[in-house]
Protein 1
Amino acid sequence: MKIDHQRLRRNTVHLLKTTGSSDAEATAVADHLVDANLAGHDSHGVGMLPHYVRNLKAGGLYPNRAPRIVSESDSFAVWDGQNGYGQVIAADAMRWGIGAARKQGVAVHGLRNTHHIGRVGAYGELAAAEGLLSVHFVNGNSGPPRVSPFLGREGRMSTNPICIAVPGTKTTKPIILDFATSRIALGKVRVAYNEGKKVPDGALLDAEGRPTDDPKVIYESQGTVTPFGEHKGYGLALIAELLAGAIVGSGTIQPENPRDRGILNGMLTVVIDPERMTDRSFVDREIDAMIGYLKTTAPSDPAHPVLVPGEPERLQRARRMAEGIEVDATTWRDIEDAAKSVGTTYDAP
Ligand code: NAD
């Protein structure tokens, strides 16, 4: 069914408040989730709510939890999210990073142990909106590792996203590159499983290591998701694991670390003010010229013009704002079940 984004937001705020979040937290998390749906990433939208409710009950997620500051100087900070809502903590950390990068030219911050931070591009968009660029490396160190290393057939990592955001100009929108380092984000495997659909061929391996397009292998056996881009994507996934897990101090997914702590993300973020490196007018001129040059490419398929990163999300957002957000029946039922388990309904009046 297609649901208006405002209704989805209201329902989500209601459920989050019922499970203990303050108005401000419920609104921030709901905005993030619904915006992920609007951007076309249903994997990181309201379909995550049943997981959040389960983790709230199991003690892997705590509402209204402020992060602990591990260290802070002018341009470096490390925060421990202490299993609080990642969408709130990561956005607050970005606001700190933006302020520090304005003053110092560069800011680096690390997040440990935040519950699921969601769509990482949301944080890149915050920097880009302020004329800054940002780079984000994320790991997930709790739950079963579902991504196999290149040439392997057993899970050893999570889907470890990377995001790089470059600010736009007067005429060019921000360039937001934001992707999981697996062939397909795990949430998209969940969405395909819920909808009874297949995923791109070879994105998954079954428990015997044979390539498959059937999402059942993840939920009904010990199948794995493959890294994107063969050895190169695998290398990037590993770097994200080490930067966000080891360097930031969150811990990697290696088996000596506990695995039953909800959905935990670590993140290393670098925010840079480009004006400290080059004259802004030169940067803007080069960005405009380069993006314009790309856009003059004749498409190999006329139905699919050349896009730049960040554009598919903007197009989807405009479409879904106008037409509503498609939520499949299984996802809707799972959210309703989660709401019932805490004594309310999701689609409350
Ligand atoms: P994806 O495969 O849809 O790739 C998205 C990126 O590719 C975007 O930058 C998009 O603008 C760009 N893109 C898509 N089509 C394009 C085209 N035709 N031309 C140019 N650029 C194009 O994304 P994904 O790997 O499925 O990841 C989805 C989301 O999941 C991301 O927002 C990511 O941050 C999030 N995620 C989060 C976690 C977590 O633990 N918090 C884990 C994995 C993924």
Protein 2
Amino acid sequence: MKIFADTAIIKEIEEASSWGIISGVTTNPSLIAKSGITLTEAIDKIVNLVDGPISAEVKESNAEAMVEEAKTYAKIHKNIVIKIPMTIEGVKAVKELTKLNIKTNVTLVFSMSQALMASSAGATYVSPFMGRIDDLTEKDDAGFKLVKDIKEMFKTYNFKTKIIAASIRHINHVEQAMKAGAEIATIPYKVLKKMVKHELTTKGLKIFAEAQEK
Ligand code: E4P
């Protein structure tokens, strides 16, 4: 499973990409607002830090306007993927962008039916939101089941759309995404940092350091 950074904060992307494990970046309007810079400014900087798919979300809500907005982002760099919300207008825009050879990531996906709509329109990626569906259902495996079901459905019908497990809140989500067969997980910086840690690693390091002292 590839690791994308789910952030628009440049310092976080710089740090995480220096570890050599980041294959792409996803942004959304909330993450852009948090970063304190505009989407275009963020894209300009991120493309120089990460050589992989970088999702930029459209602000427009009707298909024609989404396509026009998408074209302006796609022109900036070959790695730009257009993030489109799961609506009828969004599906129409994905169909059009697919014809234009512009890659898309359909976001806010919470069901197999929505994933089918996205992949039928030619979406390059779909983003099922694990954390938000867990919150809604008050279950800790609703996100896992969602990703697993979509993966099986894509396999059954031979869809080429890749799954980006999104809305990841903790390590368990990352591991559930792997078990469910997601091709990618987009992970917030604070979770990325936790992924190298384990209490027994910390304890083991202390024991070895003490032994070396002796
Ligand atoms: C990524 O593509 C999504 O926009 C992001 O993972 C959403 O996460 P959230 O539910 O924590 O806002």
